[in-house]
Amino acid sequence: MRSEGIAATGGRAGALPIRFEGVSFSANETSILEAIDLEIRAGGPTVMMGPNGAGKTTLIRLAMGLVEPTSGRITFAGAATAAPGTRSIVFQKPVMLRRTAADNVAFALSAAGRPATQADVLRLLDLAQISGLADRPARRLSGGEQQRLALARALAREPQVLFLDEPTASLDPASTKTVEEIIARISASGVKIVMSTHDVGQARRLASEIVLLAKRRVAEHAPAQRFFTEPASDEARRFLAGELIV
Ligand SMILES: Nc1ncnc2c1ncn2[C@@H]1O[C@H](COP(=O)(O)OP(=O)(O)OP(=O)(O)O)[C@@H](O)[C@H]1O
Ligand SMILES: [Mg+2]
């Protein structure tokens, strides 16, 4: 059991591994994910890739417990539910509360049942490299700044697993680099990162392993280095060659 860092669990039961067993998900009678068998373990970042509509966001929502599988099951450390407070998520377009950046983080700390001390608020803002923006109204921050504030809020829970859905989708190269540095630091502190991206360069920089989704299924799940150098599936070869695989 880890005893230090922002991922310290204080003896809480875990959320990892997250295991999908024959998981299918349909909405309005449309099949979105089919027969997903996937194990997400502790370790470096798991990066999901695949074309628009492949099911990346849906898979993240299932793993976060925001929706239930239509069939099959998902277990967390062998249990049907993850221990409370062990998972956090940052959506593609985070919604800011109508208050300052610091108060957004303070609210997230309180919501997580932690004392919202000024020191903790500043530590989280600092981690997200936005301590200089503490007193600014959150909704006036730029997209990149809001994304970093959303990361600070998500970390207020001290999650074991942090889900990030396209965390740099609309950011410029400099903001993308900053957010990637923050993600790498969070990962190094022991928090499991599960993220989606369309940015192959970003996946190369951050991923420990890749999950390629295509046609409602997992086309390939492999260590990042192997995925990029010796892709095993036809879908992965075509994806890396820049071909359409929808
Ligand atoms: N609640 C829902 N009702 C109907 N269709 C849905 C629902 N949720 C998702 N879908 C559909 O399921 C498919 C997968 O969606 P999802 O958002 O998971 O894809 P994605 O891989 O994240 O795509 P993108 O790269 O565009 O973000 C899409 O065709 C989407 O329209
Ligand atoms: Mg998506």
Report on this model:
- By secondary structure, this protein is of the alpha/beta class.
- It has 8 helices and 9 strands.
- It folds into 2 domains: 1-86 and 159-246, Rossmann fold (3-Layer(aba) Sandwich), CATH 3.40.50; 96-158, no CATH class.
- Strands 5-6-7-3-8-9 form a 6-stranded mixed sheet, with helices on both faces.
- A hairpin with a 2-residue loop joins strand 8 and strand 9 (217-223).
- The chain is globular.
- Bound molecules: adenosine-5'-triphosphate and magnesium ion.
- Adenosine-5'-triphosphate is lined by residues 27-28, 30, 32, 50, 52-58.
- Magnesium ion binds at residues 56-57, 165, 196.
Instruction: Provide the CATH topology of the largest domain.
Output: Rossmann fold
Computed structural class: alpha/beta
What is the CATH architecture term of the largest domain?
Answer: 3-Layer(aba) Sandwich
Shape call: globular
Q: What percentage of residues falls in helices of 4 or more residues?
A: 25-40%
Give the CATH superfamily of the largest domain.
Answer: P-loop containing nucleotide triphosphate hydrolases
